Automatic annotation (TrEMBL):
This is MBL fold metallo-hydrolase. It comes from Parasulfuritortus cantonensis. The keyword Hydrolase applies. PANTHER family: CLEAVAGE AND POLYADENYLATION SPECIFICITY FACTOR FAMILY MEMBER, INTEGRATOR COMPLEX SUBUNIT 11. GO terms for molecular function: hydrolase activity; RNA endonuclease activity. The keyword Hydrolase applies. Pfam families: Beta-Casp (PF10996), Lactamase_B (PF00753), RMMBL (PF07521). It comes from the Bacteria. Residues 257-384 form the Beta-Casp domain. Keywords: Hydrolase. Residues 13-236 form the Metallo-beta-lactamase domain.
Length: 470
C-alpha cells in the first residue's frame, strides 16, 4: 500500500493524491493549480502518472482546486468512475463547464494577442480543456450519500462525511484491505468553520492510521461571527438609510453568495436592517448554485432550514430579491441610485459583472463596497482593501469615493483553532499525519502546533513525495 502526493503540498491548490493498494490504483481529488505564473505550466504537465492505470477517483468537493483537472484526466485516458456526493455532482455540472469556458476565453485572448504583436500565429495555444470536454466528463460522476459506506473496488471501502465547507463537501474515510490487514486513511478535504450559517459543523472522526489534514488558515484566527454581523448591519444601514446610496458586495458564486443572502434575510427577520431593501444577485452561476442549494436543503443546518420556512411563510412581506440572468437585466440595475444591495461575481473584482457595478458606484460617496472574502495580492479587490484613491476599470481611472468595508468572519475554511478542535476529536493518534493544502510557511506552522498540542508524528510533504502504508 502506498500514498503519493501530487498536489496541494506546501501550497493551497492542486489537491490530488494517488493511493495504491494491491492492484488497485485510485485518486483522491483531481484539482487544478490556481494563482501565480506557475499554475498553468503545472496544470499542463499534469499528470505525473498514467491516467489509463487509474481505476476510480474520489472527490471531496466541487471547488476547482479539488476537481478542476477531471476533464483533463479523462481526455488523457482515464475511463473509470468519479465518486462524489449528490450535491457535489450537481455543483460540478455548473463549475466544470464554467472552468472550461474561462480556459477557452484565455486561450482565445492569448492567440489574438500573439497575432496582434507578431503578425502571425505559430503554435496556437489550446485551452487545457473545452466546454464540450468538461460536459462529457460529467458522465463519469457516480453519486453517493453521506454516511453510507460503499466499495469502489475489491479491498477498498469508502465513506463520505460532511465537512461543513460548502454544499456537498466531504471528509473521506478509506479502509484498505490486503495481506490479512486493514489500514484506514482519512482525507479531511476542506473543513468548514463550526457555528457558521448554512453548513453543518464538520463531522468528528475518531480514528485513522494515516491522516491528511488541510491547513489553508492554519496560522490565523478568523474574526468572531458576531463582530462580522455587526459590521454588516452598520454598513448596510448607514449606506441605505443615512446616505441613501447602494451597497455593492463582490462575492464568490458558490457558498459565499448564499451565505450573504442568508445573513441579509436573517437580519431583516430580526429587524436589524430594513426590509425595504432591493437585493439583486447578479451572477448566473450564483443563481444556479443557489438553486442547487435549495434543492439540497436537507443538507443545511437547522437555523437555515428555519429561515427558509420563515421565508416561505412570509413571502408577501419579504424584501425584493431578484436573481438576474441576462446582460440586459444586469445593465438595468445600474439605473438604480439608492436602496439596492447588489451581490455579484467575481469575488476578487477582477472579472465579471461586478466590475460594471463598481464602475457605476465607486465614485459615489453615498455608496459602499463590502469586501466579504480573501483578496489576493494584485487583484482589484485587494487594491480597494488597501485604500487605493482610484482604480482603473475598463481602461479608465475611477476615483474611490465610496466607503469600503472589510468583513473578516465569513471564511468557509476552518481557522487554526477550529482545525485543532477537529483534530481533538481523534481518540487515538494517527500513525502519521500529513499537513497539506496550505502555503509552505502556514503548513509548517500548523504542523508545529499539532505536535505541540497532541504530540503526533506530523509532517508537511513535498509534491511528488511517496509513503509506504504499513
Amino acid at each position: 500500500m502506498r500514498l503519493t502526493v501530487h498536489g496541494a503540498a506546501r501550497e493551497v491548490t492542486g489537491s490530488c493524491y494517488l493511493v495504491e493498494s494491491g492492484k488497485v490504483r485510485f485518486l483522491v481529488d483531481c484539482g487544478m493549480f490556481q494563482g501565480g505564473r506557475e499554475a498553468e505550466p503545472k496544470n499542463r504537465r499534469f499528470p505525473d502518472f498514467d491516467p489509463e492505470g487509474i481505476d476510480f477517483v474520489l472527490v471531496t468537493h466541487a471547488h476547482i482546486d479539488h476537481s478542476g483537472l477531471l476533464p483533463r484526466l479523462i481526455n488523457l485516458g482515464f475511463r473509470g468512475p468519479v465518486y462524489c456526493t449528490d450535491a457535489t455532482a450537481d455543483l460540478l455540472g455548473v463549475l466544470l463547464p464554467d472552468s472550461a469556458h474561462i480556459a477557452e476565453k484565455e486561450a482565445e485572448w492569448r492567440n489574438y494577442d500573439r497575432r496582434r504583436k507578431r503578425g502571425e500565429l505559430k503554435g496556437e495555444t489550446a485551452p487545457i480543456y473545452t466546454v464540450e470536454q468538461a460536459r462529457r466528463s460529467l458522465k463519469h460522476l457516480r453519486r453517493r450519500e453521506y454516511d453510507q459506506a460503499f466499495e469502489p473496488a475489491d479491498g477498498v471501502r469508502a465513506c463520505f462525511r460532511d465537512a461543513g465547507h460548502i454544499l456537498g463537501s466531504s471528509i473521506i474515510e478509506l479502509w484498505l484491505r490486503g495481506r490479512g490487514k486493514e489500514v484506514k486513511l482519512v482525507f479531511s478535504g476542506d473543513l468548514g468553520m463550526p457555528d457558521r450559517p448554512l453548513m453543518n459543523d464538520p463531522t468528528p472522526i475518531a480514528e485513522a492510521d494515516y491522516l491528511l489534514v488541510e491547513s489553508t488558515y492554519g496560522d490565523r484566527l478568523h474574526k468572531r461571527m458576531d463582530e462580522t454581523v455587526e459590521e454588516l448591519v452598520f454598513a448596510v444601514n448607514d449606506t441605505v438609510q443615512r446616505k441613501k446610496g447602494n451597497v455593492i458586495i463582490p462575492s464568490f458564486a458558490v457558498g459565499r453568495t448564499q451565505e450573504i443572502v442568508y445573513l441579509l434575510l436573517d437580519l431583516i427577520r430580526r429587524g436589524r436592517i430594513s426590509g425595504s431593501l432591493a437585493i439583486f444577485v447578479d451572477s448566473p452561476m450564483a443563481a444556479a448554485a443557489t438553486e442547487i442549494t435549495l434543492r439540497h436543503a436537507d443538507l443545511l443546518d437547522e437555523e437555515t432550514r428555519q429561515l427558509l420556512d420563515w421565508q416561505r411563510q412570509n413571502g408577501d412581506h419579504l424584501p425584493y430579491i431578484r436573481f438576474t440572468e441576462s446582460p440586459e437585466e444586469s445593465m438595468a440595475i445600474n439605473n438604480i441610485r439608492q436602496g439596492a444591495v447588489i451581490i455579484s461575481a467575481s469575488g476578487m473584482c477582477d472579472a465579471g459583472r461586478i466590475k460594471h457595478h463598481l464602475k457605476n458606484n465607486l465614485a459615489r460617496a453615498d455608496c459602499s463596497v463590502i469586501i466579504a472574502g480573501f483578496q489576493a495580492q494584485g487583484t482589484l479587490g485587494r487594491r480597494l482593501v488597501d485604500g487605493a484613491p482610484y482604480v482603473r476599470l475598463f481602461g479608465e481611472p475611477v476615483p474611490v469615493r465610496a466607503s469600503v468595508y472589510t468583513l473578516g468572519g465569513l471564511s468557509a475554511h476552518a481557522d487554526r483553532d477550529a482545525l485543532l478542535g477537529w483534530l481533538a476529536g481523534f481518540r487515538t493518534p494517527p500513525r502519521r499525519a500529513f499537513v497539506v493544502h496550505g502555503e509552505a510557511a502556514t503548513a509548517a506552522g500548523f504542523a508545529a502546533a499539532v505536535r505541540d498540542r497532541f504530540g503526533w508524528q506530523v509532517e508537511t510533504p513535498e509534491r511528488g513525495a511517496g509513503f509506504d502504508l504499513v
